[in-house]
Task: structure prediction
Amino acid sequence: MTILEAAAALRARKVSSIELTRAALERISQLDGTLRAFITVMEESALSRARLADEELARGIDHGPLHGIPVAVKDLFLTRGVPTTAGSKLFADHVSDHDAAVVEKLTQAGAVLVGKTNLHELAYGITSANPHFGVVRNPRDPERIPGGSSGGSAAAVAADMVFMALGTDTGGSIRIPASFCGTVGLKPTYGRVSRYGVMPLGFSLDHVGPLARSVRDAAVVLQALAGYDPRDETSGREPVPDYLPPQNPSLEGLRVGLPQNFYFDRVEEDVSAAVRAAAEAAEKLGARVMPVRVPDIAALNTVARIILYAEASAVMEPHMHRRGEFGADVRALLEQGRLVAAADYVNAQRLRRMLQQEFRALLKQVDCLLTPTTPTAAPRHGEFSIDIRGRHDDVRLASTRLVRGVNPLGLPALSLPAGLDRQGLPVSMQLIGRPFEEALLMRVAAALEVALPPFPALSTKSMESSSAR
Amino acid sequence: MKDWKLLAAGCGLDLPEEELARINAVMEALEAAFRPLACTIPMEVEPAVTFACPPEENP
Result:
């Protein structure tokens, strides 16, 4: 069931928010022993909130499509009176006295927050194998990583624990787990959604967005979250349009750019075939698919890494004397960041501006780009290198290669399932658009979602047997 | 070529040899990719320090 279907059922009195919330809590109880998608489950407050949502609807008070819907947020968003750990031992007991802006907005929209999801420590990695709060597992195959850093959010949505979970994306942290778990994941334009109350990793690269079961659900969530917030200095003042695409949108007249360089160079055959099939589907729906050459994405990735290393290490500087409390991979990244020269950080920011101009020129020729999200389906836990077309690749570098570059550009990007590979694992496509044109991405993605074959239902039998929280 | 081990020591990072070797490899690869790029920046280009992403006027 999607958010919009549940919203219709709530208003038709076919189901109550209490029933939806109890079902969510029951599902979490059944599966989370295996999946470890949650750090905190807020049973009592969720049930109380759901009761209120039902009472309000009965009295004719309707806050919109999220009213009464069970959702979760990554444990990186501040929540008043509830711990926010950032997946780190350092912040295990950190309790804020206020909510993040997006948590406020979800509350205003009537959503029911059932818990806070697990993540890669400090949101700095792609496996979500958290050394302090448990290894998050992929509901499609628990032997595989869910991706990260918003791995718990993706697992919770893919396993039908919640209808939607918020994530953050600094170098692909929404889109990678969306791709590996087979959900929709949206990284909006930098400045579109307030970062106030989100524990930072790389402040000029951090974005907030939803992981959801459908494109239209992601649109509904963005509608609730988007808008100017004076508490976030980088918040955009652009007006908020209507994001919800029609049921069967036309792509007539749209120009979709299909990269001829970089994006398909080191990608598994099944991924490449699925994304090219999506391009053909877009063409059948009326779009003009145009071959394009993209700017130097390898350079963009290098720039993004320099900026992230420096910013993350700057943010965590006050805690570096407690190096023994970091997981080994995160500690190494933070230490690397301390070796980035100031001049290199500044020059990375200058290169960022140059590459931004090149992308602006490209996005005048086409309305959006269609690429794979990740070059492979989800790798196995403990795998550090993967074989892509006979060439060994580092799992972290390979998984971020096609998504990281969008972060320094600030452009909106959406990951959408494109099908299953020969092992039955989800593979995904990425749509990249012009600044503040999320509505166009939603339209293209919604059309492709309808045109492509639906995913087979998830089997959770093996997970249930070994769970019991 | 930079000596990352010396730099790490200079930054006060007291790290085990194994960790230094790992960091050294990563930083060397990053340096090799970044240095040629840094040399291509025209003098007038300013850094995107306060980053903004305004909408297109005429898409």
